[in-house]
Write a structure and sequence with these properties.
By secondary structure, the protein is an alpha/beta fold. The chain contains 14 helices and five strands. Strands 3-2-1-4-5 form a five-stranded mixed beta sheet, sandwiched between helices. The protein starts with 17 loop residues before the first strand and ends in a 13-residue tail after the last helix.
């Protein structure tokens, strides 16, 4: 089955514009290494509103919870396992009509660090593996936390302190791991101090409306639009649950970024999730995917649930962990490949 085929025309999608309903799960803003989750998920659903409403009624009839608003946690309860499997399985309400873009938060931090300090996003895969494999859990977490603090727009630190703090940690790691597999990557990062200082200065002196480097929601929306626009560049309208981050200025940035990338994003429109059954289905998928992928990342995944999720995972997901990438049907970036910004 062609993943970009037209699965039906939702209301308001009578013309050439494909309308996709979206929601996310796992948002901790720019706090990617000390938040509540280690995976961010952004789901898009392309089903008619009437079909989505029927699916919600079916879920309510099967689960029979008195809750006024159902969430993914309802489907993830063990006693509702049959409902969860029906929801994702072939023949279910989302089969062939939904995708979820996953972001492994630790890898996302390393990717952004490589862009800012090295101007080389292609370096992220090798850098990530050095951090994960050579530094070990304790030092690896210190490195990631320092990088997160350095890159956050508002990190609570005194102006001018973020760069010295990060490079003090980096110097300590360089001494401890000189001659190790991580050594070359750490040395390369150490040469990027000037770029780090320019980055922090730009945050202080830049425009009032900023695009947070570390928030995965904005690039995930662009990736969702890219998937549903497809290689034929069909115009797409995204109907998204309201988010405080999605100000008019940032929506304009998303739309412009998509267009510059060759993605035919016609519009990003915000709605109240409880008023749109399609968005509620996207919320279910995002929550299920975030939990399943996060469990797999921590080594306590559910193989059956991961297998059910695999057909929905966007190949363009931002993921660095090789073991779980295989389980999720993703390819891991080759650390020997260097690409431009």
């Amino acid at each position: 089955m062609d993943p970009h085929q037209d699965f039906g025309a939702p209301p308001g999608d009578d013309g050439p514009v494909r309308e996709v309903a979206c929601d996310e799960s796992g948002s901790d803003g720019e706090n990617l290494t000390g938040g509540n989750t280690d995976v961010f998920a952004h789901a898009g659903v392309h089903v008619p509103a009437a079909d989505a409403a029927r699916a919600l009624r079916e879920i309510r009839d099967r689960i029979r919870s008195p809750a006024t608003e159902y969430k993914a946690t309802h489907l993830l309860r063990e006693k509702h396992r049959a409902v969860l499997e029906w929801f994702l399985a072939p023949g279910g309400p989302l089969h062939g009509a939904a995708r979820v873009h996953l972001t492994e938060k630790s890898y996302f931090v390393v990717d952004r660090l490589a862009r800012v300090l090295l101007d080389d996003p292609g370096a992220a895969a090798g850098l990530y593996r050095s951090v994960r494999e050579a530094l070990g859990a304790e030092y690896g977490q210190r490195f990631l936390s320092g990088a997160n603090q350095l890159l956050r727009t508002r990190n609570g630190a005194e102006p001018g302190s973020s760069v010295p703090l990060f490079f003090e940690t980096l110097d300590e790691l360089r001494r401890a791991y000189a001659g190790s597999d991580a050594g070359p990557a750490l040395e390369r990062l150490a040469a990027g101090r000037g770029r780090a200082e320019a980055y922090r200065a730009g945050l202080l002196d830049g425009p009032a409306v900023r695009i947070p480097v570390l928030n995965p929601l904005l690039p995930a929306i662009v990736a969702t639009a890219a998937y549903w626009s497809g290689p034929e560049r069909r115009p797409v309208r995204l109907v998204h649950d309201r988010q405080n981050l999605l100000t008019p200025e940032r929506i304009a940035w998303i739309e412009e970024t998509a267009r510059r990338s060759g993605v035919a994003l016609a519009e990003l429109r915000l709605v109240v999730a409880r008023d749109d059954p399609r968005v509620q289905l996207a919320d279910f998928l995002a929550g299920i995917a975030r939990k399943a992928a996060g469990d797999a990342l921590r080594g306590n995944g559910d193989p059956e649930l991961t297998a059910l999720l695999r057909p929905y995972v966007d190949p363009a997901s931002v993921w660095g962990d090789g073991r779980t990438a295989v389980a999720l049907g993703l390819s891991v970036p080759n650390p020997s490949v260097r690409t431009g910004g």
